[in-house]
Amino acid sequence: MTVIESFQETLEHQKGNASMNWIKQAALAAVATAALLGPASAEIVYNRANSGEPETLDSHKTSTVQEAHILRDMLEGLVTYNPKGEAIPGQAAKWEVSDDGKTYRFTLRDGIKWSNGDPVKASDFVFSYRRIMNPETGAKYANILYPILNAEKVNKGQAKVEELGVKAIDDKTLEIKLEQPTPYFIELLTHQTSLPVHPGSVEKFGKDFVKPGNMVTNGAYKLAEFVPNSHIKLVKNENYYDAKNVKIDTVMYYPTPDFAAMVRRYEAGELDTTDDVPADQMKSLKERFKDQVKLGPYLGTWFLVVNTSKAPFNDVRVRQALSMMVDREFVAEQIWGQTMQPGYSFMPPGVGNYGEPAYMDYKDMSPIDREEKAKALLKEAGFGPGKPLKVEIRYNTTDNNRNTVVAIAEQFKPAGIETSFINTDGKTHFAYLRDGGDFDLARYGWIADYSDPNNFLFLLKSDNKGFNYGKYNNPEFDKLLDQAAAELDLKKRAEIFKKAEGILMKDMPWIPIMYYGKSNLISPKIHGFVQNTRGVYPSRFLSKDQ
């Protein structure tokens, strides 16, 4: 029985009345109209798994991929990503570059607004770039923006924030000057550190400007709820310039570091997409979900960071021996179900403005020969029967990470290496590393922020306090990076970078284990998803069947 039929039947019981009163007539008319127009559009909710809890939603203090997914939905920089992971105009409609490659002039879009209705101005970007470079902000990732004129000096307290090479020509025109030509600068601006903050909110609420009700955004969504260890709710920003083309009303981010649980929730229909899968279940997942399993390359490397500041890990022979004992093929194929590739260089293949990576010189050595060489190195370093090398591996808890470090510990045993573990959630793990916590070996993964060798090699520069967790210090390596920064010829620049990577492959301060691949489960209800090497999937470009 339809709604209108039911309503009419109810009224039949009132035939004794001389006539319907006007209220009943109006109600019947309303129901009839609703029936003719059809049901109201239901809210479209996208339930999106995120493999970790964000430590912060302050774009100037963020550093993880899990945070970046959320922030890119809420905030938009001068440049942003399209569904293929390519750089496209964001808040800037266009830009011009000077002949010497050192000055960029951005023209903002017409009529762009913050979620509270304030106009987005060029001065907002000046405020934001000054804030992240201000040493008082404590941005651990500020050095990614060092190509900007005076950025390093400002960040190190050697210059005033007003000397930063960012200037508002007028409300719609922003000028950024660089220290030297930087071939990857436009792509660099897609990174979350270039996402703007709303000046008025920061000034009014201080560190609480990121809380629901306080946070003002300029992207496709705005923050509605943040319940730690439960969910983050984003709702459509009606003031976004492209709001009419944003198909999804609400995005629910669920932190789900347990990948097996993530799959169960997906299978139950509680999640529309996952941002990873249990690698050891890959065969089963393909059988169960078929083309819902999406695999693709991902520009990143899975490492074990070595604390080079403490004995015995300050001994290069120990670090080399540890690296030689790892059977990367086994880990990639058996533990990760071929979703990852064995990693024998610091950078994965395919990095822009580069060429073939500088591989370890024992890449093609047989496992038996590697093991014998490793034992010899450990003996030279003073370890052997009666005096085993003891190693503690610290890692962030996921099924894949746990299985990986356990497998590596087994591979260490033939060389007499004894391994113990400490595991914490991702938020705690990465905060511990950033805050200079003590460790022997620590699991770490690096996904390129921009496709250029500098984005990998800068991690180990001696003055990179934000990411050089193992306190690696090699003046020759630092000098090569400085030379590359000043080299305008891309071919010569690549050669310099390769020498620098070659040093890392001998010193082994970070032990590369695998090159990343990207694995997702995507519901057939979700449309517009494109697997890409950048691993970015903005919700604004997706749609979902009701």
Describe the structure.
- This protein has 546 residues and is α+β, with helices and mostly antiparallel strands.
- The chain has 17 helices and 18 strands.
- A six-stranded mixed beta sheet has the order 12-16-11-15-13-14, sandwiched between helices.
- The longest helix is centred in the last third of the chain and has 18 residues, at 490-507.
- The model is unreliable at 1-39 (pLDDT under 50).
Question: How do the helices and strands line up, and which of them pair or pack?
Answer:
Elements (H helix, E strand, L loop, with lengths): L2 H10 L9 H16 L7 E6 L14 H10 L4 E3 L5 E3 L2 E6 L5 E6 L13 H12 L17 H5 L10 E5 L2 E5 L7 H4 L10 H7 L15 E7 L3 E6 L13 E6 L3 H9 L14 H8 L3 E14 L9 H9 L3 H8 L5 E2 L24 H14 L9 E7 L2 H14 L5 E7 L1 H9 L6 E7 L6 H4 L17 H12 L3 H18 L2 E12 L4 E2 L15 E2 L2
Parallel strand pairs: 1-10, 13-14, 13-15
Antiparallel strand pairs: 2-3, 4-5, 5-7, 6-7, 8-9, 9-10, 11-15, 11-16, 12-16, 17-18
Task: Name the features.
546 residues; alpha+beta; six-stranded mixed β-sheet; 18 strands; 31% helix; globular
What can be said about this structure in brief?
The protein is an alpha+beta fold and 546 residues long.
- Give a short account of the largest sheet: 6 strands, mixed
> Rg to the nearest angstrom?
27 Å
- What percent of residues adopt helix (DSSP H or I)? 25-40%
Termini gap: 23 Å
Number of helices: 17
Category from helices, strands and their pairing: alpha+beta
Spans of at least 5 consecutive residues whose pLDDT stays below 50 are 1-39
Which descriptor suits the 3D outline?
A: globular
> What would the average pLDDT be, to the nearest integer?
91
Strand content: 15-25%
Strand order of the largest sheet: 12-16-11-15-13-14
E-strand count: 18
